[in-house]
Design goal:
With 337 residues, the chain is of the alpha+beta class. The protein is built from ten helices and eleven strands.
Amino acid sequence: MSGQSPLVRQWILLRTLSGRANGATVKALVREMGVSEKTVRRDLETFEKVGFPLQEEVGEHGRKAWRVQSAPGQPGLSFAFDEAIALYLGRRLLEPLAGTVFWEAAQRAFRKIRTMLSPGALKYLERFGAVFHQTLVGASDYSKKGELIDQLVMAMEERRITHITYQSLQATEAVTYDVYPLGMVSHGRSLYLVGWAPRHERTQHWKIDRIEEVEVTPLQFQQPEGFDLRQHLAKSFGIFHGEGEIHVKVRFSPTVARYVQEGRWHETQRLTRQPDGSLLAEFDLSAIEEIKHWILSFGKEAEVLEPERAARRDGRGTESYGARLHARRGPREMNRQ
């Protein structure tokens, strides 16, 4: 287990302690975890610092053991029935992590919830859960990518230079890249790796589905100063990212205005209803690939006003509102591959 990432190792250690009513000695944890005593003690200190209810107790013959317990005055960890329902419904959102230790832990937690419920309550819960359904159209399947995802998580945590073998959508064969892994993004029911590509000297995105192999090297990289994953994607309309500064303004017809107004499409969106029932939508973006396809999906019900009106004409010479976006792009457009 010494090759595991610190996050995965600590997760397993915490799970081990949580399952031992009488606790476990450091020596026992060292044997089970397959790491040094120094590593185990450092992880235990980390748990204490972040406030986990962890305590070292002295038992018979001076035997010291660590165990997880409730803080003074606080009840043990339990869930109300409505909380159990929420967990049942919410766990489906973890499906992009299927195959990883986090998904496995969620599955175990749900099984425990089931054992705590009476047959009648369980029947109601299952019936209530059936009211909600999450479509799987276009969803990625990561059940066989668990080890690969764990390797990437380790590389991110330890800032290790990583080789990934990747086959892009347009490529006929896979190519190996040197990558400095910086984070992961869940978008459109799929996971994407965000990393610095030293070969191209820019930040790029790789879809996890298309990564065939991962090799984490012992070499470390220096994370870009001030890099923040959320800020990195703040002006992306999805997963595409660019360095441009593009103001997009679209008029939606009264037919689709309410639908657009009901959604949260981007952090910078400004939606203004017009007297005629139409809707003006404005966005400040760094790239236009994804919003272009989104706008075109509305056909004649959407009209692009900015950055420039590029309405195409049909064979009869009449104007169509299925406008195509044209905009100035930044010097280094960074797209997902």
